[in-house]
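User: Modeling request: complex.
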Amino acid sequence: MTHLVLRSLKKSFGNKSVIDGLDLQVNEGDMVCLIGASGSGKSTLLRCINLLEPIDDGFIELDGQDISDPERDPQPVRQRIGLVFQSFNLFPHMTAEENVMLAPRRIKRLSRDQLRPAITALFNRFGLSEHMQHYPDQLSGGQQQRVAIIRALAMQPEIMLFDEITSALDPELVGEVLDVLRQLKSQGMTMVMATHEMGFAREVADKVCFLCEGRILEQGPPEALFGNPQQPRTKAFLSAVL
Amino acid sequence: MTVARAAPGRTRREIHEARARKRGIVIASLSTLLVVGAIMLLVPLAPGWEAVQKSFFNGEVFLKTFPKLLQAFLLDVAIFAWCAPLIAVWALVIALCRDVRNPALYPLRLFAILYTDIFRGVPVVLVVYLIGFGVPGLGLPRPWNSPYIWGSLALILTYSAYVAEIYRSGIESIHASQRAAALSLGLSKSDTMRFVVLPQALRRVVPANMNMFIALQKDVALLSFIGPVEVLRQAGVFKSLLANFTPYVVAAIIFLCVTIPATRYADYLITKQNRARS
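Assistant: Request completed. Predicted assembly structure:
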């Protein structure tokens, strides 16, 4: 079943076009990886889906419902779509637990005591139970990024977006974050991920999209896209990074 | 020639630094002694020194007026103590009004802009005069004609304009990614401000605000122009009574006893913050 549909999406900053008539379908439970050079529009695309960046034209449909109507309040939509950033963006003045609890407390009006069992379970699941009371600057990059993922998951989103979430990490910390994604995948979470981790994309993705100049130039299952790319630019990109 | 022998647990670099430090202390002490000695020798040679010493640095007058002036200074502290929290709150209201983006609330924004422009553009002493003399002139009944109320209000209005700008600079210094992270979770704009941006911004502007509040403590003395007998006014009374300026020196020393430690503390906070951020 298709879960998220983007139709002729357009977004420009000033007169620089970043997303230029992009179409994409994401099926329920699928992991879609966006690859492409820096500046190809991967991050902007994810921010547009979460409505952090208003789109100029086109449609975004979630569960068959147009969520991109500029007249509508984006806030309820954002609650249904989790976004994790490259630079973690944890709130530095709050403990890990407070970071995770803030949104459910304010939006779902749940008390800390009501939230604690579910949130403790999330921390346990991702191996962070000892770090709930730590502040972000007391955590390693990998731990911070996992807290950021938990923070997004705590709102029980229907779909998760990941914006190069391992790019700011030391190589030895990448694995622990990717493990979290494998877990989410096995639980059937729908995910869209911008990444430079080609090995991971090949292993886990259901679909890989090659972005170029704000459009999807080529897409397909990872074996096809990595094994037998059709477009010369895809070939050039892959031979440069692999 | 002595060869630096490595003492146990000390590197050659450490030995060198310890020596350089010692040398630095000796040189600094010597040059300070030299300058202070020269001043102490030369200033008394000035023709008017004796007169100045008698009217500004009179030990007898100092001892006689000090207790009363210290008592008067308590009034300065009290005025400061009730003004400071009101400034902290009112300035926050102004700062938040300036960031209002809702078109229906535009008048609030306009008000905040005019407010900061006006009160930052007028000398404090003028505001003290205008409000301190102007409002009681309306013939309000007691206690509403008290110069304490209207003088304090003048300070609160003026200082809030400056502190509001400090708050705003703090709010703007919070990186956009923090706002994005909060919004992406579905938090409202006001919750984002209240729980994510403001707590970080307020912490960041503590040192800058410290400096504002040190200035406020000094400017409380301006209220002496409209009536309250605080330390400056009391020193003026003593000056007339004893025909001697020493009470002013006493008042200055009392102020310094409070403001120097406070400035040092603010500097310490700034250094600490800079170190944390670099």
